[in-house]
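testing teh design pipeline on a random one, pls ignore if ur not involved
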C-alpha cells in the first residue's frame, strides 16, 4: 500500500505541492503540541511542581497543546485531504493561484497566532475564553487561518457543480459527499466565531472597548465549538466508510447509510452548542434542555456508522474465511504492515466506542453536573478527537506523503506499533482522567502547585493514583508519537522510487441502493438553517437584550483584572 495503482492519477504541481506542505508543516508543529501534552500529564500528576518549564508557563503550554493539535493540525489536514479527495474522485484541477492564496493565508495566520502564544501574549486556551484576553495578533492570526480554509471549499463547490453537469444522473462519489458535508458544517460553524472574534474580541484586545460580554462570547464560541468536533470527525468517517471496507478486503455494507449519516450531520451538528454551557448562568433552562435533546439526536448518525462499519468488517472477515459469532474478528488484517491504515482506523474506532459512551453521559443535563469542568472531559475528548480523528489523520498523512512524493513507507513494522501503542496509551490515560474527574479533580488546572502537591494545604491524596495513571498513559502516548515521528521523517527523507501519483482506496457497495432523499444537499442545508434559527435565535436574543455583565480582562496567572 502506498505505491501507485492502475487507477492512480497525476496531480497538477500546485495541488500536489500545497497538499504536501499542508501535511508536513502541521505534522512538524505536532512535536510542540505533543511535548506540551506530555508536560500536562506531568504537571497534573505532581511530578512537575512549578508554574513553568523551560520558560513556557503552564497555561501557555496548554494553549499551545490545544491550538496546535486541535485547531492547526486538524484544519491543515482536512484542507489537504479535501484537495486529494476532490482531485481523485472528481478528476478535477484547481486554479493554482487560488490554491496558493488559500495556503498563504493559512500559513500567515498560523505564524501570527503561534508567535503570539510563544511570546506569552495569548494564553487564552484553544477556546479563546474571555475574560482571558490575548494580543490582537492572535485573533487576527486565527481569523486568517479560518478564512484561508474557506477558499478551498469554494473551489470544491465549483468543481462539484461542474462534475454534476458533466455526469448528470450519476451518484456523487461518497467521499466527495462526505468532504462537502464536512466543510458545510465548517462554514456554518465559523460564521458565529468570526462574529465573536471580529466584533467582540479584536476591538477589546485593541483597547477600543474596555469590557467584554462573557456570556455572549461563550455562546458564540460554543455555537462554533460543537460543530467543530464534527468538522474533525467527518473526514475520519469518509475514510471509514470509503476506505476501511476495502482495506479489510470487503465491501461497504450500506452506501446509503453513509450518505444519510453525512446529511444528518449537516442538520444536527450545529444546534447543540448549549450542552457545553449547561452550567453557565444567563441562558434559559428550556433551551439547555432543547440542545441536550438535539445532542442525543446527533449521536444517531454515529450509531448508524458503528453498525454499518461492523457489518462491513464482518462481511470482509467472513470473505477471508472467518466464522463463528466473534471468531471472525481474527481474520481481519490487524497486523498487515502493507495495510497499515487498517490498524490506524480500527484502533481509533475502538477508542471511539468509549468516546461515544462518555459523550452521551456528558449530554445528559443531570449527569453533566457531575463531570463538567472536571478531568472527565479531557478523558472524553482524548477518545474522540484524540482517538479516531487523530489516528486516521496521522495514518492518512503517511499514506498521502508516500503517494505524493513517490517515496515508499520506511520502518513499516515500527509503523504498525504506532496505532496500537496509542490505543493503549489513550486507554490508560483516559481511565485515569475519567475516574479522577468523577472524584472531582478539575480540568485545566496546574495540579502540581496545588491538589497534587503534598506540601499544599489543598493536597488531595485520593486523586493521586489516578493522576499518576494519567501520566503513565501520557508517557505511552508520547512513545507512540516518537515511533510515528521516526517513520514520518525516515519516509520523508527517504529515496524516491516512483513518480508521484495518487490512488485512494475505495470500497464497492455491498448492494445497489438508491435513496432519493440524500441526492441533493439543498433540503438538508435549508433544514439545518431553520433548526439553527429555532435553537439559537431566542437564547442569543435574550443574552443580547438581557442584563448584560461586561467584564474586564484577566490574565490566567492572576485573579484580579489585568492592567
Ligand atoms: Fe464531545 C465535550 C457530548 C462526540 C470532542 N467533546 C467535548 C469536548 C471535546 C469533544 C473536545 O453533551 C471538550 C470541549 C471543551 O474543551 O470544553 N460529544 C458529545 C456527544 C457526542 C460527542 C453526545 N465529542 C464528540 C466527538 C468529538 C468530541 C466526535 C471530537 C471529534 N462532548 C459532549 C458534551 C460535552 C462534550 C455534552 C460538554 C461537556 C462539558 O460539560 O464540558 C456524540 O457525537 C458521540 C456519538 C458517538 C457514538 C459512538 C459510535 C461508535 C463508533 C465506533 C464503532 C466501532 C467499531 C469497531 C465498528 C455513538 C462509530 C469495533 C471494534 C472492536 C474490536 C470492538
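output:
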Amino acid at each position: 500500500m502506498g505505491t501507485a495503482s492502475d487507477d492512480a492519477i497525476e496531480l497538477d504541481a500546485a495541488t500536489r505541492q500545497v497538499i504536501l506542505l499542508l501535511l508536513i508543516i502541521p505534522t512538524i508543529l505536532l512535536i510542540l503540541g505533543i511535548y506540551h501534552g506530555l508536560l500536562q500529564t506531568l504537571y497534573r500528576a505532581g511530578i512537575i511542581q512549578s508554574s513553568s518549564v523551560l520558560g513556557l508557563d503552564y497555561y501557555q503550554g496548554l494553549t499551545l497543546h490545544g491550538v496546535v493539535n486541535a485547531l492547526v493540525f486538524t484544519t491543515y489536514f482536512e484542507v489537504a485531504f479535501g484537495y486529494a479527495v476532490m482531485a481523485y474522485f472528481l478528476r478535477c484541477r484547481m486554479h493554482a493561484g487560488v490554491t496558493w492564496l488559500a495556503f498563504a493565508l493559512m500559513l500567515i495566520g498560523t505564524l501570527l497566532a503561534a508567535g503570539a502564544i510563544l511570546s506569552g501574549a495569548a494564553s487564552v486556551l484553544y477556546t479563546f475564553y474571555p475574560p482571558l484576553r490575548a494580543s490582537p495578533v492572535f485573533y487576527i492570526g486565527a481569523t486568517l487561518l479560518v478564512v484561508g480554509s474557506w477558499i478551498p471549499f469554494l473551489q470544491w463547490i465549483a468543481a462539484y457543480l461542474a462534475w454534476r453537469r458533466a455526469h448528470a444522473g450519476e451518484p456523487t462519489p461518497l467521499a466527495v459527499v462526505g468532504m462537502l458535508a464536512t466543510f458545510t458544517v465548517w462554514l456554518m460553524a465559523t460564521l458565529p466565531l468570526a462574529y465573536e472574534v471580529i466584533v467582540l474580541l479584536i476591538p477589546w484586545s485593541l483597547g477600543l472597548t474596555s469590557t467584554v460580554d462573557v456570556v455572549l462570547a461563550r455562546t458564540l464560541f460554543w455555537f462554533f465549538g460543537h460543530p467543530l468536533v464534527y468538522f474533525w470527525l467527518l473526514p475520519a468517517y469518509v475514510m471509514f466508510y470509503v476506505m476501511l471496507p476495502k482495506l479489510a478486503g470487503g465491501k461497504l455494507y450500506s452506501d446509503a447509510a453513509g450518505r444519510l449519516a453525512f446529511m444528518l450531520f449537516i442538520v444536527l451538528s450545529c444546534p447543540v452548542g448549549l450542552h457545553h454551557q449547561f452550567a453557565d448562568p444567563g441562558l434559559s433552562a428550556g433551551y439547555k434542555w432543547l440542545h441536550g435533546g438535539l445532542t442525543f439526536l446527533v449521536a444517531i448518525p454515529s450509531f448508524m456508522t458503528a453498525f454499518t462499519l461492523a457489518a462491513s468488517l464482518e462481511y470482509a472477515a467472513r470473505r477471508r474465511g472467518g466464522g463463528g459469532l466473534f471468531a471472525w474478528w481474527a481474520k481481519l488484517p490487524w497486523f498487515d504492515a502493507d495495510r497499515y491504515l487498517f490498524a490506524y482506523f480500527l484502533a481509533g474506532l475502538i477508542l471511539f466506542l468509549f468516546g461515544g459512551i462518555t459523550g452521551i453521559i456528558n449530554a445528559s443535563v443531570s449527569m453533566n453536573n457531575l463531570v463538567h469542568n472536571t478531568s472527565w472531559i479531557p478523558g472524553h475528548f482524548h477518545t474522540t478527537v484524540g482517538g479516531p480523528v487523530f489516528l486516521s489523520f496521522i495514518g492518512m498523512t503517511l499514506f498521502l506523503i508516500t503517494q505524493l512524493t513517490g517515496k515508499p513507507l520506511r520502518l513499516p513494522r515500527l509503523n504498525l506499533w504506532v496505532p496500537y501503542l496509542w490505543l493503549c496509551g489513550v486507554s490508560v490515560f483516559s481511565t485515569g482522567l475519567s475516574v479522577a474527574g468523577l472524584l472531582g479533580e478539575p480540568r485545566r488546572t496546574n495540579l502540581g502547585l496545588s491538589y497534587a502537591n503534598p506540601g499544599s494545604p489543598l493536597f488531595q491524596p485520593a486523586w493521586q493514583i489516578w493522576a499518576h495513571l494519567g501520566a503513565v498513559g501520557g508517557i505511552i502516548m508520547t512513545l507512540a508519537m516518537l515511533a510515528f515521528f521516526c517513520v514520518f521523517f525516515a519516509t520523508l527523507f527517504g529515496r524516491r522510487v516512483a513518480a508521484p501519483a495518487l490512488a485512494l482506496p475505495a470500497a464497492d457497495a455491498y448492494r445497489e441502493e438508491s435513496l432519493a432523499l440524500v441526492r441533493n444537499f439543498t433540503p438538508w442545508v435549508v433544514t439545518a438553517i431553520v433548526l439553527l434559527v429555532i435553537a439559537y435565535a431566542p437564547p442569543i436574543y435574550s443574552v443580547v437584550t438581557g442584563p448584560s455583565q461586561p467584564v474586564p480582562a484577566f490574565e490566567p496567572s492572576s485573579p484580579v483584572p489585568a492592567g
